[in-house]
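cron nightly-structures :: item 1 of 1
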Amino acid sequence: MSFFSIDNLAISFGGLQALQKIRFDVQEKEVFAIIGPNGAGKTTLFNCINGIYHPDTGTIRFDGREIQGLRPDQIARLGIARTFQNIELFANMTTMENIMLGRHVFMRTGLFRGACMWGRRSFAGREERSHRRRVEEIIDLLQLQSVRGKLVGGLPYGTQKMVELARALALEPKLLLLDEPCAGMTSEEKQDMIFWIKDIQDDLGITILLIEHDMRMVMDISDRILAINFGQPIVTGTADEVRRHPEVLKAYLGEEDDRESAA
């Protein structure tokens, strides 16, 4: 049985069929990428996985149970975390505070009540300190020490993307959904992100489901790739298999003459 799988998934909005016949499986500790042109349905697929949308038909199975139809908070508690294509951080909160929000599913006393009890000899105070220690470990892992106390709104864009990744890791996910993690980054920032994604896979053992337009990155780090277009699957396979598929070249990479630029 696969660690994560989708079978015959479909969803429509009004008369528009956004996804249909989507089927794939992801093995534990794998980096699995989903590619396709703008409007192909990639983010809609992520929205179905983490409960923002409920598919019309099909099944989504994670770690032995079906999860389609569950609320986003229920799915998060099962061990699925997500970053977003557009950064979803609180600009007027610090890096530490934003990452602490990722611990909310574990907090028995509540995030803000626990913060008010900081320093007291109470369960809330002990719980707060425990969560802060975990957040400090993530800050160390992603080398965010220099910005831990700074307001997120004043940080460079690439650093904000790292903070969002850190907040997702604070959920201690088994499956991490990364929606265009390198969008808007410089070449150096992209290389750093690739490094961290591989570390997350190798050192933390987290399974990663990735949407990304940077084909060089996708080809470098993915174990397998699913290509979709107009909401339908084209091919699933290794980087070499996908990049040579004629329908992928036509739909996503451009004309076949552009093959070398995607290599």
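cron nightly-structures :: done
Residues 123-141 form the longest helix (19 residues).
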